[in-house]
Amino acid sequence: MKMVYLSKGYLKARSGKDEAFLIRAGKEYRLHGFQAVMWMKVKYGFCETDSEAGIRAVAGLRDMGLVEAEERADGLAEFRILTRCVCDPVKRRAGNRSSARLDEKERQVMTWIRKAGIHLSVAELVFLSELGVWPEKEFLHDRHRQKLVETLYLLDDVGDSRLEDRMERAASRDEVVSTLMSLLKKRQILIT
Q1: Rounded to an integer, what distance in angstroms lies between the CA atom of residue 67 and that of residue 53?
Q2: Do 31 and 114 fall within a single domain?
Q3: Domain co-membership, 60 together with 102
Q4: Are residues 121 and 181 in the same domain?
Q5: Residues 100, 69 share a domain
Q6: φ, ψ for residue 32 (rounded to 5)?
Q7: Residue 152 belongs to some domain of the structure
Q8: Is residue 21 part of a domain?
Q9: Does 64 share its domain with 100?
Q10: Over its length of 192 residues, how does the chain's per-residue pLDDT go in tens digits?
């Protein structure tokens, strides 16, 4: 069996290569040994394991809520993993601008994540991409939240779980997942 997984939360401190102190949902965790190594592997992207020890370590991390995993390794599995996560923008200190260069798709997704006025799910980000809806002023910030929600749910009469099911087959699914992973590697977002 092969398993693909992704870590959740963020690294607070590290002591050597096999001890990590993490924070997720306001709770602190201390990982030792192989579990710390396995969590650190997926800090900035998906990883696969097919070893018995790796699968056991990932299962333990999943039970603690520190990773999401699927028992298959493909684009659909990665999408399903991300649907169970929240993509939060990294908070920057005043005057500390990110040095990462973002391409057009990355800028578009980051604008949705930072300025939508609501936490958009990965399925919602894929749907907006499918519809060709750009993060323009009329959809952004709290005052335009209602128009964004109507665009997502009223125009196509789709419910929340049905949206995830439909977006599993969307043409832009893999592009949005890839963009989110690029933003994670560039330290623009956190997966929580």
Answers
A1: 16
A2: no
A3: no
A4: yes
A5: no
A6: -125, 155
A7: yes
A8: yes
A9: no
A10: 889 999 999 999 888 778 999 999 999 999 999 999 999 998 899 999 999 999 999 999 999 999 999 998 899 999 999 999 999 999 876 555 655 699 999 999 999 999 999 999 999 999 999 999 999 999 999 999 999 999 888 755 555 568 899 999 999 999 999 999 999 999 999 999
Task: Identify the CA nearest to 114 among candidates 88, 136, 94, 86.
Answer: 88
Task: Name the residue among 16, 64, 66 with its Cα closest to residue 43.
Answer: 66
Give the DSSP per-residue string, the chain: --EEEEE-SEEEEE-SSSEEEEEETTEEEEEEHHHHHHHHHTTTS-EEE-SHHHHHHHHHHHHTTSEEEESS-SHHHHHHHHHTS-EEEPP--TT--------HHHHHHHHHHHHSSS---HHHHHHHHHHT----GGG-SGGGHHHHHHHHHTTTT--HHHHHHHHTT-TTHHHHHHHHHHHHHTTSEEE-
Residue 23: strand pairing partners:
10, 28
Residue 100 lies in a domain: yes
Residue 67 lies in a domain: yes
Residues 42 and 110 in one domain: no
Domain count, the chain: 2
Write down the pTM of the prediction: 0.90
**Of 106, 104, 46, 51, residue with least CA distance to 76:** 46
The domain of 21 spans 3-73
